[in-house]
Amino acid sequence: MSIFKNPQQNPNHSTVMDIPVDEVQESKDQLFLVDVRRPDELTGELGHIQGVKHIVLDELPQKIDELPKDQTIVFVCRSGARSGHATEFAKESGFSEVYNMLGGMIAWNEKNYPVEKE
User: Fold this and answer.
1) Is 117 within the bounds of a domain?
2) Which of 47, 59, 90, 112 is most buried, most CB within 10 Å of its CB?
3) Which of 52, 55, 57, 77 is catalytic?
4) Residue 13: which pLDDT band, with cuts at 50, 70 and 90?
5) From CA 106, how far away is CA 102, in angstroms rounded?
6) Is residue 7 part of a domain?
7) For the chain, where are the alpha helices, taking DSSP H only?
8) From CA 109, how far away is CA 115, in angstroms rounded?
9) Which H or E run contains 60?
10) pLDDT tens profile 67-83
11) Which domain holds residue 82?
């Protein structure tokens, strides 16, 4: 059962559910967050969410075993496109509680939620 109140069907990936940034912020202590952007993007203008695990999207197939199957995972990127692909891949790899953060770090920053840039 999902911890989220308002998951939405992703328009580009039929197996992917999107989660609004507000719900990610409210539940982030209960989530395993994975940022799939390039390393330079984590320290760039949008920053990253504190405590996020960084796995570049291209490396996800080799590193999928580093993710916990017993936790709710939310994938994050700049706008939600790459993280949608990551979420779809995780679903195909047998993960059930995986979600895409709707709007990515752009939406997170628009809400003025805290970020790190180091």
Assistant:
1) no
2) 90
3) 77
4) confident
5) 10
6) no
7) 21-27, 39-42, 60-63, 81-92, 104-110
8) 8
9) helix 60-63
10) 999 999 999 999 999 99
11) 14-110
